[in-house]
Amino acid sequence: MTNWFHSWRAAVRIARRDAWRYKGRSFLVLAMIALPILGVSAADLTLRSSELSTEESLARSLGAADARLTESGYGSVPVFQDPTGGTSAPAAEDDDKPFPDGGTDVTKAIPAGASVLTDSTGTAKLTTEYGLLQTEVRELKADDPMARGMLTLLDGRFPQKADEVAVTEHFLETSGLRVGSSVTARGFDRTYRITGVYELPGELTTDQVNALPGAFLGAYKKAADKAGLQRPNVSTTHLLKLSGGFTWNMVKEANTKGVVVVSRAVALDPPARSEIPLYQKEGWDPYEESPGARAAALAAVGTVVGLAMLEICLLAGPAFAVGARRSRRQLGLVGANGGDRRHIRAIVLSGGLVIGAAAAVVGTALGLILTYALRPVLEDYIGRRFGSFDIRPLELLGIALLAVLTGLFAAIVPAITSSRQSVLASLTGRRGVRRSNRVLPLVGLGAVLLGAAIALYGSVISDQFVVVAGGSAIAELGVVAMTPALVGMFGRTGRWLPLSPRLALRDAVRNRGRTAPAVAAVLAAVAGTVAVATYGASEEAQRRAEYRASLPHGAVSAFIEEDGGRDVPAVRDAVQRLLPIDLRADVDRVSVGRTGCSVYSRGSGCGLYELVIPKAHECPLWISTEENPDPLAKLSPEEIRKLSKDWRCKESDDNGVYVEGGLLIGDAKVLKVLGIKDAAAEQALAAGKLVTFAKPPVDTTGKVGIRLITDPDKADEARMKGTEPPGKVVSLPAHLATGEPRTYGVKALLTPAAAKAAGLTTVPYGALFSTDRMPGSEQRQKLDAELARLGSGVQLHVEEGYVSENGIVLLALTVFAGLVTIGAAGIATGLAQADAEADLKTLSAVGAPPRVRRTLSGFQCGVVAAMGVVLGSAAGVLPAMGLRLTEGRERQRWYEEALAQGFGDGGPAPYVPIVIPWATLATLLIVVPTGAAVLAALVTRSRGALARRAAT
């Protein structure tokens, strides 16, 4: 034991001295290992600091209260909830009844003797220095002790009077206002003075103003009704403070009244899973907490960590070999003075231990310092404050141990290689006879065949992506193991090369021990890049094929769904003034009930309409009655597939111009903007007819019915029973457009005059525009600024065709692979120069010009890069192809199941292409090796130090 300790101590001292002597090489390896450790430790600190403890999370959501009571949204029916209050569901579900919806009286669930603080939120468009800004309005007595911790005051004070508000810092920055400024809402005759600035610790980017309870939302709702504006959707919760806390039994009691509770006592001491009724319902057991989910997460993390360590070892291994080669005389002296092979191995392994430990200290320390220094930046980036700077010593120690292990693993192969050299060869500098391992290539070939078989099984038989990925990983490791043999095969091409590249290739083949790890490092990096690039290019081609234009190329649409179209005229004029408009087509929408209702509003006084489908034209797959609630149950899969292609069941896949109910109010200009050339349709519009592009709504008399529904809830109940919804039906003469033109989502078109004559109420909706050229970036920016000043929720779309989103990703992957390739090839070149110094001196002695040294160095680097890129490209394409084949089979299965269940419309089968990214491969195959060779040639000295050639 004592001898072991002393021998390792001496080995560590020698390794530390060598590391200090060769600072450049040591710094290179240290940086390779320390940079990932820095990133992982910083990520760990950021993640842990951003993960709030239960107490910190409760302080932000409850303040100092014991519970928060909220409507479930399911009316007054009993509900089940999880302990956090984040998930709830009706206690009993009946498929024959409408899904429960609506509010409930939360005050019925408040225990006697509890202190109550209301917290209400709504939205309003507030005036700013630049126009109007959609803002959240919160009525909460923020300086109440019960609210402590929910809002952090930064400047001034919280409101004390009914005409005062405090605002978030983000609102202040966005609005251009300041403390002391006045603010009001659109259509509101009250003005409020800003008295303070605060922030929401969990939502830093929220635009919010805080007022006293009852000071804003109630009066603003009345003003909005009077002005015909959209009502603020106000929600109110109740904060409670009571002796003994809000227990789990009290939570379940509140659930019986349709109330969901966030309880401090329950969150700090949650009940057992068996006591949670929600988790006893089928399908409600949380997957993320299951053993399978945890095992999958651990497997994913382990895979990423393992591959990262392998890549670093492959990159750093040749660097340790450089050190061992340059220190071979020193290692020979150790052997000459009685040291055996284990002492040689210990010295080389200690080099990995010393640099790995240094990298662990440096990487972890820098991770701590940078995370702490950049904490405000990180908080702004993720949009929430950290709870505390959470340092987990055991996790950081584990990350540091990864660095030490990586250094040791990287030094294993050089240590074994160095220990096998004889003392005489080490002292004289002779290389001796080097025999390649014949077993390793066979093992690698077996791994390639096994991995390919697994990947093929996953692609053709199984539907599991993980099977394809696992098989691909095994095959890639097999290629890495075969690298020495493959390098030897590359050597046969040297006979056709000029002198310098022939010497470089011969040297790489003769010294496979240093070449193979560098080639394998390049192979691994390039294979990953090519796999992702191939998958991305294939997915890009699929998205391009599946892309459906929302409008004709260059056309523009601008719609407003709120406030009864109050701002539509200003938006129409702004678009026409700032963009190169050729033709403008104004459009309106049908409104039922209050004109201030938004398109999807279901509030009081808001209705809807629908195009009536005659009974004979209804799709048999969708007709449900009380006697036959499930029409699909009596049909065979073949009958369902056949009916899905029936004209009654087919739905257009056009999108872009969408209006609730499907009827757009406009004139013939709409047809021109959409590129629909139909003279008969234009004549029908001029005659006051409704033009429909779908056959089902047209009855036998050639008319289309429009049902005006004033009570949406009763309509839903009628549909559940299979009866017609109540509502007045307005019938209009119709014209069915011929052919199947691209309508971009427009189902029916009616002129404003015909709508008025039929008694339909319409409100402005927006406009469609054709352009004489594609709007430029400057024009778009000016329009965006103008629309922001108006403060309206404008849905603006400029049809530019399919726009690729993967270009920057592919470029980043190519740059990453290029950097890794150049780094690995540079390390191999440095090792080659250390080995070939005697050959270079011989070349100089026989009269070779100085540029030969530089040229040879460049070709040595280029050869390694080229071999790695070629092998990596071949290895990377295969897993991507396997994943795409698996995805294609899975999508085809979903398509067939959808048709069999009546959810499909008989559209085309899924298109899952496999596309090779030739541009990326060309860059990797040509540019990267050439760049590596040129860079190596530029940084290599033309003349070496004069010295006597060592005897060999």
Considering DSSP H and I runs of 4 or more, what fraction of the residues is helical?
Answer: 40-55%
Determine the N-to-C terminus distance: 40 Å
Q: What shape does the CA trace take?
A: globular
Low-confidence stretches: none
Derived structural class: alpha+beta
Count the E strands: 22
Strand content: 5-15%
Summarize this structure as a short list of keywords or feature phrases:
alpha+beta, 30 helices, 50% helix, globular, 6-stranded mixed sheet
Description:
50% of the residues lie in helices and 13% in strands. By secondary structure, it is of the alpha+beta class.
List the helices and strands and how they pair.
Elements: H1 2-21, H2 23-50, H3 54-62, E1 67-71, E2 79-81, E3 88-90, E4 115-127, E5 132-139, E6 152-156, E7 164-168, H4 169-175, E8 182-183, E9 192-199, E10 208-211, H5 217-227, E11 235-241, H6 248-255, E12 259-263, H7 264-268, H8 277-280, H9 291-326, H10 328-336, H11 341-373, H12 375-382, H13 393-420, H14 423-428, H15 439-460, H16 465-481, H17 483-490, H18 499-510, H19 512-546, E13 556-560, H20 568-578, E14 581-590, E15 608-611, H21 637-644, E16 663-665, H22 668-673, H23 679-686, E17 690-692, E18 703-709, H24 712-721, E19 728-736, E20 748-750, H25 752-757, E21 762-771, H26 777-790, E22 794-798, H27 807-835, H28 837-845, H29 851-900, H30 918-939
Parallel strand pairs: 5-10, 7-9, 16-20, 17-19
Antiparallel strand pairs: 1-11, 1-12, 2-3, 4-5, 4-11, 6-9, 7-10, 8-9, 13-21, 13-22, 14-21, 15-18, 17-20, 18-19
